[in-house]
Specification:
Helices cover 38% and strands 25% of the residues. It is built from 8 helices and 15 strands.
Length: 261
């Protein structure tokens, strides 16, 4: 089993790197071809589509017969055996504007549980990765979540949905949380927010309404770095994702429930 997880991690890193190179080298032309999905503010670029196609093609070569669930082309919902969950560009709005905080996320799940994953930052070339029970790294260096224990000193990352009605409720949650923590950060990439928890660059992250490809790789990286992670449907937070330093996880969960998550 350990060998399989390590192999899947290596494949995830390799494929995410290749997709990251494509995303970065084609950005200027790719953002000229833009359409929308759930709302007018939810874009998809030619870069998203090309990167997902590359990922699918490479996985078909390296791991033939294993299904893929991706943001742009959908795919397998069955969770038996190995399934790949991919986000060709997480942070498409940032990518569209040239704001260098977007990523390629590639995760391998076994019977519905993420066992390996990689998140690559095309703009910087940084590579985050993890294997279950094998630790998490950034460019080969081990990661560790922060040691904060005081909620008032907790730096929290979050994100917002594209639909206005969902944003309205999320703003109310943030309004209630902001006065109880050190500060709030909103970067625009859920995958990288989760990685930042693993690195201790922020102490916690929460967001409701995400899709599996948003959190599949990043949640494992945070968890393997020692963060407490709750995924949609696994706890008291409904469809929200929570990743937090162990010293504040229970306090933050309670605050989020009180705030209406």
């Amino acid at each position: 089993m350990v060998h399989l997880r390590d192999t899947l991690r290596q494949v995830a890193v390799r494929v995410a790197r290749e997709a990251g190179e494509l995303v970065e080298t084609t950005r200027r032309s790719a953002v000229r071809d833009v359409s929308t999905k759930s709302s007018a503010t939810d874009p998809v670029t030619a870069g998203d589509r090309a990167a997902e196609r590359l990922i699918r093609d490479r996985l078909a070569e390296l791991r033939p017969g294993e299904p893929v669930l991706g943001e742009e082309e959908g795919g397998a919902v069955a969770v038996d055996g190995v399934r790949w969950v991919v986000d060709p560009i997480d942070g498409t709005v940032n990518y569209l504007y040239g704001f260098p905080w977007y990523s390629v996320s590639v995760a391998a799940q076994l019977d519905g549980i993420t066992v390996a994953g990689a998140v690559v930052e095309p703009a910087s070339g940084r590579v985050w990765s993890a294997a279950r029970d094998g630790g998490a790294t950034l460019d080969g260096q081990p990661l560790r979540a922060s040691a904060v224990e005081d909620l008032e000193l907790t730096l929290v990352a979050t994100g917002f949905a594209y639909r206005p009605e969902r944003r309205a409720s999320q703003i109310e949650v943030v309004r209630n949380v902001l006065t109880r923590v050190r500060d709030i950060r909103r970067t625009g990439s859920a995958a990288l927010d989760l990685c930042m928890v693993g690195a201790g660059w922020v102490d916690a992250y929460f967001e409701a309404g995400l899709n599996p490809w948003d959190w599949a790789a990043g949640s494992l990286i945070a968890e393997e770095a020692g963060a407490v992670v709750e995924l949609p449907g696994t706890g008291e937070l409904g469809d929200a994702v929570l990743a937090a330093a162990p010293g504040v996880a229970a306090q933050l969960r309670k605050l989020l429930i009180e705030a209406g998550v």
